[in-house]
Amino acid sequence: MKTLTILALLSCPVLMHAQSGEYELNGKISKEKAPVKIYLTRIVNEEILVDSVTLQNGIFQFKGNVGGPSYSMLLMDHKGEGVDKLLQDPNTDKKMLYLEKGTIKLVAQDIISQARITGSHINKMDEQYREFLKPADKPIAQINEDYNKAPEELKNDKTFQNSLNQRYLLALSARKTLQQKYIIDNPESFLSLVALKEIAGDIINVPQIDPLFQILSEEVRNSPDGKTFAAAIEKERSLCVGATAPDFVQLDVDGKPVKVSDFKGKYVLLDFWASWCPPCRREHKNVVRAYRTFKDKNFTVLSIALDEPGSKEKWQEAIIADSLTWTNVADLSSPVNEAAKAYNIKGIPQNFLIDPTGMIIAKSLRGSALDQQLAELLNPKDE
Asked: Domain 249-378, what architecture?
């Protein structure tokens, strides 16, 4: 068995529980006799671990250790394309499963995505959970199918796009409602933590998520993954509206240090972006409009670029192209931006509006929402 490490992230969560120990995964693909590769991928300490074995007379086996249930993915390389290509291809023959302490059996005829798993309590629970979500997942699948079947001209039609988006939002809301019911009805289940993390997403709505987290059993909350999620809630709580904005120091385009606290006494929008981020560049049109409207009313912008080391020229070109005439800072000396870390940035564009006292008063203001918020603050009704 060959093991390698890829410094990247799967779109699948790593999940742990108290049941740590050695796992054994025994697989049988009855109709496949060729020596094709089977890959097993999972995330450990924010790295993707990839194990591989060669199918021998339809049989394969993986062994290893887990700190608890670990969400993993099996990929079957029918054409010898290699793991990198398989991970990027949405049509790859793959099977999601949990690895846990003990022996897990997997049986399929020729396609691993249709495999049946036995001998695993957590995978049986996961199967029941997925079945519970089917009434919500079917409409989402239909929306994707409607989009994929549409001709290119229709795909680019704004009315069609808006219609699909509205359907998707309704279906997603229905899915979250089902997940909340699952959590309330199954507080002892490890999969309730899975459901809660799916509801929470990257930006945790603390008033909504924390009460649901407290519903979970003490065992689930105190599991390694439960403790990690609790820490994420507390981190987000420190960045809620009403919290004091964390200070940081970054260098501007001339190499001079700039701090958030330098802007005390003004309303300042912290704008997290990157020159390589198309949504950020599009959103800058809204930020520029708001800046030009309110810059003479005690408002300014501080843009923090999350560009990579060695990309100063691209950063400065983007500043000029997007007409960012306010203060711009970046840390181009390190792959880890401390400002982004301080504000728990999981995706960009993202922003925080800070008042003259240094308190966060709004966040995630996109499009016209930024203008509306600033108008309420800076255009008194009695004017």
From this structure: 3-Layer(aba) Sandwich (3.40)
In degrees, rounded to 5, the angle at the alpha carbon of residue 211 between the alpha carbons of residues 207 and 212 is 115
The runs of H, that is alpha helices, within 253-311 are 278-294
pLDDT at 1 exceeding the cut of 70: no
For the chain, which residues make up each domain, given as ranges? Answer: 2-119, 123-237, 249-378
- On the question of pLDDT at 382 being above 70, the answer is no
Tokens of 317: 């070109």
Q: Which CATH architecture has domain 2-119?
A: Sandwich (2.60)
User: 327 - beta bridge partners?
Assistant: 302
CA–chain centroid gap for 22, Å, is 29
Q: How confident is the model at residue 381 (pLDDT cuts 50, 70, 90)?
A: low
Residue 132 pLDDT > 50, yes or no?
yes
Long-range contacts of 250-255 (CB under 8 A, 24+ apart): 250/304, 250/329, 250/330, 250/331, 250/338, 250/339, 251/329, 251/330, 251/331, 252/327, 252/328, 252/329, 253/316, 253/319, 253/328
